[in-house]
Specification:
single chain; 109 residues; alpha+beta
């Protein structure tokens, strides 16, 4: 039985068309917690809260034929740990944190 392909919706297709080597369509997030978490606790929390939504475990697949449309597919090698970064900043590091977030959001070619 052939599996049903889920085509990108209009918004996703627009974001994909806007992406280029100098205009990466990346979404970054900074999470702040009232109490410290270990890296493993953070990964577990992200898995618990976000991975239940299939879209966060999927990737875009381009058609083999030029006439086809890109579609979503479950990523068999997805690893949430590859998307959670551990960074050490100096004490009282708000300015350093702002610089790091700024650098992370910029495109480095």
């Amino acid at each position: 039985m052939a599996r049903k392909l889920e085509a990108l919706n209009g918004v996703d297709a627009a974001w994909l068309r806007m992406e280029s080597p100098t205009n990466l369509m990346v979404v970054n997030a900074l999470l702040r917690f009232d109490a410290p978490l270990s890296y493993d606790e953070l990964v577990e929390l992200v898995e618990e809260r976000l991975m239940r939504f299939k879209r966060f475990r999927q990737r875009v697949v381009y058609p083999k034929r030029k006439m086809g449309r890109p579609h979503w597919e479950e990523d068999p090698t997805f690893d949430v740990g590859a998307h959670v970064q551990r960074v050490a900043l100096p004490e009282g590091g708000t300015p350093a944190l702002k610089r790091w977030i700024s650098d992370l959001s910029l495109i480095h070619i």
